[in-house]
Write a structure and sequence with these properties.
Layout: E1 5-6, H1 7-13, H2 19-27, E2 31-33, E3 36-38, E4 44-45, E5 52-54, E6 57-58, E7 67-72, E8 100-102, E9 109-116, H3 119-126, E10 134-141, H4 146-154, E11 157-158, E12 161-162, E13 167-174, E14 177-184, H5 191-198, E15 203-211, E16 214-215, E17 224-226, H6 229-238
Parallel strand pairs: 9-15
Antiparallel strand pairs: 1-4, 2-3, 2-5, 5-6, 7-9, 7-17, 8-9, 10-14, 10-15, 11-12, 13-14, 15-16
Helix pairs in contact: 1-2
Length: 246
């Protein structure tokens, strides 16, 4: 007979959200078990026998672990759905139960976005303590000096907390503007845009080139492809979760 599992693990395994986000769903009273609202994180259930719903919707039947790389164009919301009816990245990838974006890219930012139905994989790649590197190319207003770029490398305060050390390379100029490549090991909200705005060189155009070993090579804007097993293993190793390779 199957051993009951913690409810947050069941939600994460079904791809509803990461385990941490699943805990927040439970504490917010958005999860029901056999018709009763559950807010206790220690609650256990059998996903094959119990009726589990999130926001009134039955838990999707868990598909096999699925991982995609998408070259996100601008003009798409990084969300499973949008109440305002805007286009979401889900229209660019196959329909898989529980599939969701790993982290976010702004509406007006393009480039590499990962999607999965594996909640633990999402946590491994988005939690700040894991530090999976992400590289961006930015076109910025004006020509930042080397002194200002060094400030970005050493860390600047965002909401009173210094950013982690970053790799920053000047790529060249484009008339009155400049091109800069930045590699971060953390992922605060709109971090690249905020960092560059703080040094007085706002972003005009931003594109994410890579996440760990995964790049945009061969992916046209709007196209998606499955991650290879080697890429998945490398991402998990970078995040310190190598023992979790699917």
């Amino acid at each position: 007979m199957p051993t009951p599992q913690r409810l947050q693990k069941i939600l994460a395994s079904a791809g509803v959200a990461s385990r941490r986000q699943s805990e927040e769903l439970i504490q917010a009273g958005r999860v029901t078990l056999n018709g009763a609202v559950v807010t206790e994180l220690g609650t256990r259930a059998d996903p094959d026998r119990d009726r589990i719903e999130v926001d009134g919707r039955p838990l999707p039947r868990a598909a096999g672990p699925t991982y995609y790389a998408l070259n996100k164009p601008t003009g798409y919301i990084t969300s499973v759905s949008d109440p305002r009816g805007r286009r979401t990245v889900m229209s660019l990838v196959p329909e898989v139960p529980g599939l969701h974006p790993v982290g976010r890219l702004d509406y007006d930012t393009s480039g590499l976005l990962l999607l999965t139905n594996d909640g633990d994989f999402t946590l491994a790649l988005t939690h700040p303590r894991y530090g999976v590197p992400k590289t961006y190319d930015a076109l910025v207003e004006g020509h930042p000096t080397e002194r200002l770029l060094q400030r970005l490398r050493e860390g600047i305060p965002l909401e009173g907390v210094l950013t982690a050390h970053a790799k920053v390379v000047r790529l060249g100029t484009d008339g009155p503007n400049a091109r800069v490549r930045i590699t971060l090991h953390e992922g605060r909200n709109r971090q690249v845009r905020r960092m560059l705005a703080l040094i007085g060189h706002p972003v005009i155009r931003l594109k994410r080139l890579s996440i760990g070993p995964v790049t945009l090579d061969g992916l046209e804007p709007g196209a998606a492809r499955p991650l290879t097993q080697q890429e998945i293993a490398a991402l998990l190793q970078l995040s310190g979760q190598e023992g979790s390779t699917p």
